[in-house]
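Reminder: ligand-aware prediction takes two inputs, not one.
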Amino acid sequence: MGIAAFEKQAGEWCRHCAPGRGGCKIYDTRPEECRNFYCNWLLRPDLGPEWRPLDCKMILLVYPQGLTVHVDPDFPDTWRKEPYHRQLQLWAFKAWQARMHVAVWIKRRRIIILPDRDIDLGEFDPGDRIEVSVQMTVLGQTWSAARILAKHDTSKQSIGAAPRINTA
Ligand code: SF4
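Here is what comes back for the chain with iron/sulfur cluster:
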């Protein structure tokens, strides 16, 4: 995650972190945004032991737009494995019902998890957002997603053509 106090970008090591040597070097004086950080592993007793971040190499966070799965870049495919991927798809369906979405973040790369498929939307810039839509077909519902560019909010790199029903 980014840390505004240090102008640290998401996906970069914090300069105060000593991996394997005790972690945070300024723990007693760390900034407020670090003190106030609680991932879902700490907040949700319903998560099974498989979701322990050190084991699964993922951190779950809930934002207003939905669930974000921050993936350790050294283990970029961990979210594809089971039982994770099936659980993410189940959450994606619930998120859709609540007009939200589930997205995997690997540094700047975003992959949207939809109830029926995953879509790699590529690398995002700050302010870009995800739009999810659904289409009714004779075979049932099918979902698609698009990256909405922050600079040109009316233009989008769309993957899958579908009428917009939901904005996430
Ligand atoms: S808790 Fe410490 S190491 Fe982690 S981001 Fe904050 S200052 Fe950096």
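Helices lie at 32-35, 40-43, 53-56, 84-97. Residues 3, 14, 16-17, 24, 26, 30, 34 surround iron/sulfur cluster (CB under 6 Å). We will return to this case in the review session.
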